[in-house]
Structure formats: C-alpha cells, structure tokens
Amino acid sequence: MSRKIVVAGSLNADLTIYCDRLPNPGETLQGNGFVVNPGGKSANQAVAAARLGGQVTLLGAVGKDANGNMLLACADGSGVNTDHLLRVTEPTGVAVISVDAQGENTIIISAGANAMLQPAHMTPALFNDAAVVCLCLEIAPETVLAAATAGHDAGAIVLLNLSPYEPISEALAKSVDVLLVNIHEASAFLDSVDMPASDAPAEAWHGAVESFAERGLSKVLVTLGAAGSVVLDSTNASAPAVLIAPTKVDVVDTTGAGDAFTGAVAARLAGGDSLVDAARQASVASALATTKRGAQVAYPHLEDVMALI
Prior knowledge:
This protein is 31% helix and 23% strand. The protein is α/β, with parallel strands linked by helices and 309 residues long.
C-alpha cells in the first residue's frame, strides 16, 4: 500500500505576539514576546504528517524572500518533499497572530504568494500513487477543487479541512472522502441543524451524521476543543458516531493545534488505520503540539506520541 501523502495549499510566515489577554476592539496592549515562525495550514499539516512518519509531498507557493527560505528550510528539515513548491515574485504569505496567557489566539492572514497557486499546477502526475490528499481553504477554491479532483481520480483518500470556513461546491463535496471541521465550522456548514453539546453522548450526534450524509459527506471528523472529537460515519450502521476522548496536557499555545490534528489523521490514514484509530492518535499529537509555543516548531515526532500513548 502506498503511504504517500500530497498536501496542497498554503505556506505562511507566522508573526506571533504574546500577551496576557487578547485586546478589545480599538484597544492597544503591551505584549510580552514576539517571534516569526514557519506556518500556514498546509505547511503545518505537511510537517505534522511527516514528523509522524508520513511520506509527504507539499504543493504550494512562497516568495523569493527570507520568509520563503525559512518555510522551505523547516519543511525540508522535517522530511517533507518540497521539490514542487513554486518560488514566485509575490511576497510569502503571512499570518499575524496574538496569543494570550491561556494559550488562546486570534489570527489574520494575508495570502501573498499563496494566491499564485493555480489549478494548472495540480497536474495528475503529482498525485500518482497518493494514499491521501490533504487540503484546506487557504488557497483559491478552484485550486482546491482541482487538487481534490486529481486526488479522487488517483484513488486517494481526499481529506478536506474546512478552514478558514466557507461553503463548498457540490463538485468539491463529491471528491471529498473525509471532511474535518471544528464544532463552529460544523454548525455553519449544517446551518439550521443544532449541534450537540460538547459533553453529549455519541447518540446525540446521529442527526448530524444524517445531515452531513444528505450533503454528500459520509465521513466527518468534528473536533471539540478540550472535549476531544467525534467521528461521524454514515456507512457504519453499528457505530455511526464515535467519541474520541481528549488528551489532557498543560496548554501553552493552541496555534496550529488543529493542523497538527489534521496532519496526524492524514499520516495514520496513509498508514492504513481506520478513521477512528487515526483520530485517537491525532488527539495525542495535537495535544502535544499545544505544550510549546508556535505551530510547526512545536509539533511532536512519532516517538513522542507513542510514548504518551
């Protein structure tokens, strides 16, 4: 079985300032630390998957600048194949991040070079032998669709992290095998469907299972923050909803924790695990990612995850 993972999407330089609390609108606060780290949802997911043993190829675009060099160096150093990354004249994308004393954050992104990644760059040959194709919505929707279609046609599991949230087309939904959303994104996607409380039993999710299936999505992973996650699978009549317990750690910074979860799921699916087993390992990986500052620089290696398990 192929273990190849293709991640197509965004690479950003994370400009992060730490503060005691997040500012209110119009308010200026004194920070207590500033760093520039490699980030971007797709680069994060690629590094997370590679550190957990995945054979990862990253498709994206960065500028011919210092931030682009930093992102390439981190991806290369984590074992990600960056041979197909574009170097363009646009500046590398950036994310401006504020992190408070409890590890919560706010993020604003500027696409920069990411906007240069086009559907024409998603050539079928890049997806040959892929076991998993990992996508998010930090690049143009038409490019996401092209990558999803190429992955679907290659027989890969297409994993879409619906973030930053926006509605998706019916054509994209048809090419997605696993949708990964947080509870807020799930609520927005299903619109009028009430989401269960974070401490609700698995049976409370059966209505959401049906609602996602009606929209063409039979397998969905919903992350619940500190409450863990839930696997929804309308093809599994005996267990359509399975709760995944959270991994308890001392949280320092939640930046990129969702990407660590996504990357871990991709790595385990490429390794042949079930979606439930993949989610269980992802719970540990994403929790460990919150115990240090930053995104990629905080991601655990496989031995770290196995030691905690």
